[in-house]
Design brief:
By secondary structure, the protein is α+β, with helices and mostly antiparallel strands. It is built from 7 helices and 15 strands. Strands 5-8-9-11-12-15 form a 6-stranded mixed beta sheet, sandwiched between helices. Strands 4, 10, 13 and 14 form a 4-stranded antiparallel beta sheet that branches. Strands 1-2-3 form a 3-stranded antiparallel beta sheet. A hairpin with a 5-residue loop joins strand 2 and strand 3.
């Protein structure tokens, strides 16, 4: 089975993630992979964007073509916002460099950041309920070692540091972490005294009443996990099962970056008593 496949008007990757074939970053990625000798994504995108017949007097819509119903010759045709966005994205593919783009829908960036920050606070509240005092460890701080800037984990308590994430796994039970962040945490653990104990803590969960709620809950259940029951693994014991370019936000900009994926089997249930010997 191909790693990428067209599902109706969308593309699905081998992790069960749904990709929008009209997204400029997906199309750029498809072109890059095609040029490198791997045409699976390119073919899947083309399949998803192929002409589809419409009912009635409509005509097939080609990729990049603004679709309109047949009208009288004197009528004025006004393309919809979605039509113009699609056309602009497809036109921008040609002769365009792969520069980071500012996020137009900044609300999504803010929403995701708040979602993550709430998880960090919830984690600290959980520790406090067991008499363990913790605090935020990051706040945008970096440590420079040998010319490398290392990103600090999110929270800390009793000499232990935690990278906190709230997310749901892929269809195959994989959780991602950007390669640059994973490498930074491992280097921090290896090179900087006081950071010997760094853990990746995941709260397997999904936003309620969202477009991915049903899918996310199904993936969590398929992986044998329970929403809200955190899992944990020492950062230096994690071994990537797959590495794959994924879209993420870096300094408020959307980028495609290499991302490591780890199967849920590499994690254990998070147990406060075991973690802190209480």
């Amino acid at each position: 089975m191909a790693f990428f496949k067209a599902i109706g008007r969308h593309v699905e990757d081998g992790y069960g993630n749904i990709l929008n074939p009209r997204d400029r970053s997906i199309q750029l990625r498809a072109m890059k992979m095609h040029d490198a000798g791997n045409s699976e994504l390119h073919l899947a995108v083309q399949q998803a964007l192929k002409p589809q017949k419409k009912s009635g007097n409509s005509t097939p819509r080609m990729a990049g073509e603004v679709f309109t119903k047949p009208v009288k010759e004197s009528a004025v045709i006004t393309p919809t916002k979605n039509d113009m966005t699609l056309l602009d994205d497809l036109r921008s593919l040609h002769g365009s460099s792969d520069k980071p783009r500012n996020i137009q829908h900044a609300g999504n960036v803010v929403r995701d950041r708040v979602y993550g920050e709430n998880e960090e606070q919830d984690f600290l509240t959980l520790l406090a309920g067991h008499g363990i005092t913790g605090s935020l460890a990051n706040n945008g701080t970096v440590i420079q070692v040998g010319g490398k800037k290392l990103i600090l984990p999110d929270t800390q308590a009793d000499g232990r540091y935690f990278e906190n994430k709230i997310k749901y796994p892929t269809y195959g039970g994989l959780f991602g972490l950007e390669e640059y962040r994973f490498d930074s945490l491992k280097e921090l653990q290896r090179s900087v005294p006081g950071y010997e104990d760094i853990y990746y803590v995941i709260n397997p969960n999904v936003r309620p009443n969202s477009t991915v709620t049903e899918k996310g809950l199904a993936n969590i259940d398929r992986a044998g996990l329970t929403p809200g029951q955190r899992i944990v693994a020492p950062i230096n014991q994690l071994v990537p099962d797959r590495t794959f370019d994924s879209a993420t936000y870096v300094a408020g900009q959307r980028r495609e970056v290499p991302t490591h994926y780890f199967h849920a089997d590499q994690f254990q249930p998070f147990n406060i008593n075991t973690m802190f010997n209480v």
